[in-house]
Amino acid sequence: MLKILDATLREGEQTPGVYFDGHIKLAIADLLDEIGISIIEAGHPMVTQEIHDAVKQLSGHGLRAKVGAHSRSLKQDIDLALQCNVDFLGIFYCVSEARLNHVFKKDIYTAIDQIASVIEYAKQNKPGLLIRYTPEDTVRSPFQNVVDAAAAAVNAGADIISIADTTGFMIPGTENNFYDYVSRLKETLAAKGLSPMIAVHCHNDRGYALTNAIDGFRAGAEIIDATVLGLGERAGIVDLAQLAVTLKNDFTVENKWDLSKLPELYHLVSNYSGIPIPANFPIIGDNAFTHCAGVHSHAAVKNPTHYQSLDPQIIGRKMSVSLDHMSGISSIEWALEKLSIDADKPLIEQILKHVKSIGQKGRRVDLSELKHIVDWCKKTVVA
């Protein structure tokens, strides 16, 4: 069964200026758990004492999801994560030649020894721990380095190998695509008698994170990383709502996700991250299921599928119609029906004229204001 790993509390806090207090992290984790997320990456305990304490609190909170920590390939990081009693541990170490030569000052063999030793150490101290090894910047590293490091990690006790597109380098339809990369890595490891779970961690620097993640899934990845609002370093990673809805609606992935909780989760994260939800944001944005132009609204009122490829009820939302300068008669009739207001044709035409004049000022009319417009126009029509 495909698993979603939500990294809002770890990768999400790598968004400049974003930090969640412990009680907010708990509230976010509760909603993620209610949705049915498999793994919640709660933070990197080495970064601050507050993050360490929050990871520990979440791991003891009784969630159905596995609660995880992030860790460098260092024993002191492993010790801090184990102190938090996490169920999942993500260990990373880059094996690109540039990082090995210019940052770590190590050859690939020394690096692999370090990776394997910390994984063995973690597994010995907590045998049931689910361990992921990530060769950071996987897709730009020499493939043989990735294979050798991944094989050593699995032999040392890693359960998952994560393919990280750390810089948003991969482009669908080119020679650098996730489908081919995941397929190649799985086949190469299988030839060595190794079959770890494969995860994909896709950054959105060039706008292809979701597409790359879906390509990875199609090639057999069992875990996909995501965050609420796609938060994360630079342009962030895969957006949770877009991923979950696509997998559930279009790929009919076996799951027990309750996606009706997504709007509540997104507003909570937006409120406490200070990152607004764009009105035109897919799935969750205010305009995602709102029809504006008269032709669109006229058809959508009769049958929403004329201008919607997705049923908003999958996340507990409903179709709506915008009342502004683009509105037509059908938009006004739809709104009046919502308000249980009867109106004849002359009154409707007068209301429409008034709504259009407001829309030309760059403003939308909501249903509560429309009631006042109806009262105003009734007197105008009578006069």
The number of helical elements comes to 14
Give the termini distance in whole angstroms: 67 Å
Domain count, please report it.
2
> Order of helices and strands, N to C?
EHEHEHEHHEHEHEHEHHEHEHHH
Total DSSP E strands:
10
Strand order of the largest sheet: 1-2-3-4-5-6-7-8
Q: Please estimate the helix content.
A: 40-55%
Oligomer: single chain
Can you describe what's shown?
There is one protein chain. The protein is of the alpha/beta class and 383 residues long. The protein has 2 domains: 271 residues, Alpha-Beta Barrel (TIM Barrel), CATH 3.20.20.70; 93 residues, no CATH class. Helix content is 44%, strand content 12%. It has 14 helices and 10 strands. The strands form 2 sheets. It has an 8-stranded parallel barrel, surrounded by 7 helices. Helix 3 links the parallel strand 3 and strand 4. Helix 1 runs parallel beside helix 2 and helix 11 packs across helix 12. The mean pLDDT is 96.
Short key terms for the protein model shown above:
alpha/beta, elongated, TIM Barrel, 2 domains, 383 residues, two-stranded parallel ribbon
Ordered list of secondary-structure elements with their pairings:
Layout: E1 3-6, H1 22-35, E2 39-43, H2 49-59, E3 66-72, H3 75-83, E4 88-92, H4 97-104, H5 108-125, E5 130-134, H6 143-156, E6 160-165, H7 178-191, E7 197-202, H8 209-218, E8 223-226, H9 240-249, H10 262-273, E9 290-291, H11 294-302, E10 320-321, H12 329-338, H13 345-359, H14 367-382
Parallel strand pairs: 1-2, 1-8, 2-3, 3-4, 4-5, 5-6, 6-7, 7-8, 9-10
